[in-house]
Write a structure and sequence with these properties.
The chain has 245 residues and is an alpha/beta fold. It has one domain: Rossmann fold (3-Layer(aba) Sandwich), CATH 3.40.50.1360. It has helices at residues 9-31, 45-52, 81-93, 108-119, 159-167, 186-190, 205-213, and strands spanning 2-6, 34-38, 62-66, 68-70, 98-100, 126-129, 152-156, 180-184, 194-199, 231-236. Strands 1-10-9-6-2-3-5 form a seven-stranded parallel sheet, with helices on both faces. Helix 1 packs across helix 2. The radius of gyration is 17 Å and the shape is globular.
Length: 245
């Protein structure tokens, strides 16, 4: 695991977004196309700003996969990850080669099956991910499933995960936060050629410490990133604060 510590969230995003852009352009140059997984949430703001500012990326050669989405949440809800990706990514890139957004309003089992068929046989070039306050990777809350081969799962969201979504302002109260989601599985994330993990903010310091310092354990889902051949963890001073402790 390669770790880069920047002075602040903006600098973190510049470093992470620059690397993501480089790897996407490299894939397009080598094979004529790129497959990219996009995460959402506040941790991705600065990274996406830098990535999407790179005018040299041919987005018409990119296929997008969506990392996770709430079950039962309307797309027009402020917390909808589909809404986030349409407004913060697709509105800036223009048409991509293919876009696979997770529709949490349809039958979850059918959606999971369709996504599995879409991503089957594909090797993702770049997976953009974050780490939750509870250490989750995507919506794989602890104890995370490290064993399933299914590309996408229906998962239950734990209390700390739901509280984080509320505390970040996406929902008015924890009672409004859905209790289930569709998430890319841990094994599917690890199949990506390159993983870029952006984790700003002191709220994530303990989760970052667990990710880096703990032995690989599903109680600390992000610790599995230690096993990936090309994982880049981008931190700011606050999120890295406990790494020396």
């Amino acid at each position: 695991m390669d770790i880069t510590i920047s002075d602040n969230a903006a600098a973190l995003g510049e470093a992470a977004g620059t690397l993501a852009a480089t790897l996407i352009k490299q894939a397009i140059q080598e094979r004529g196309e790129a497959y990219v997984v996009f995460a959402t949430g506040t941790s991705q703001f600065a990274t996406l700003n830098t990535l999407l500012a790179d005018s040299a990326i041919d987005w018409s050669a990119v296929t997008m996969f969506h990392l996770d989405e709430y079950i039962g949440l309307p797309e027009d809800h402020p917390a909808s990850f589909r809404k986030y990706l349409r407004e913060r990514v697709l509105a800036k890139t223009g048409p991509m080669k293919q876009v696979y957004l997770i529709d949490g309003e349809r039958d979850p089992s059918a959606v999971v099956s369709e996504l599995a068929a879409a991503i089957g046989g594909i090797t993702v070039d770049v997976a953009l991910v974050g780490i939750g306050e509870n250490g989750h990777l995507a919506f794989n809350d602890p104890p995370a499933d490290f064993e399933t081969d299914a590309p996408y799962l229906i998962v239950d969201l734990d209390g700390p995960c739901r509280a984080q979504q509320c505390n970040e302002g996406w929902f008015a109260s924890i009672n409004d936060v859905p209790k289930q989601a569709i998430s890319m599985s841990v094994k599917q994330i690890l199949k990506s050629r390159h993983v870029i993990c952006s984790v700003p903010d002191g709220r994530k310091a303990q989760a970052v410490k667990d990710c880096v310092k703990q032995a690989v354990d599903n109680r600390y889902p992000a610790s599995i990133l230690q096993t990936h051949a090309d994982c880049h963890l981008f931190l700011d001073r606050e999120s890295a604060a406990l790494l020396g402790a």
